[in-house]
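Let's practice the habit of predicting before peeking. Look at the sequence and jot down your guess about where helices and strands might fall. Then scroll down.
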Amino acid sequence: MKFFLLYLLAIGVVGVIFLCTDKYKATHDRWRIKERTLHLLEFFGGIFLMLPTMYIIRHKCSKVAFYWKSWAILALWIAGICYYFIKY
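Done guessing? Here is the structure:
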């Protein structure tokens, strides 16, 4: 369990770095990070830090498709965690 929480923290920090980098690049008209990459980082566990960061830095909040995909990924994670605790 300790390893799993450390993993979530590490992937979350990487996701936040990618999200902040994308915000910086967006404001300076530079090459952007693909949304697919950001969603993959969310899917692999970064959602718990990336979603709050998305609102704090006000990045990707107005894109409805990105917004809903992020919340769907969070719902999948919550369902998986609930299933784990019910099963074990």
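How did you do? The CA atoms of residues 24 and 30 lie 8 Å apart.
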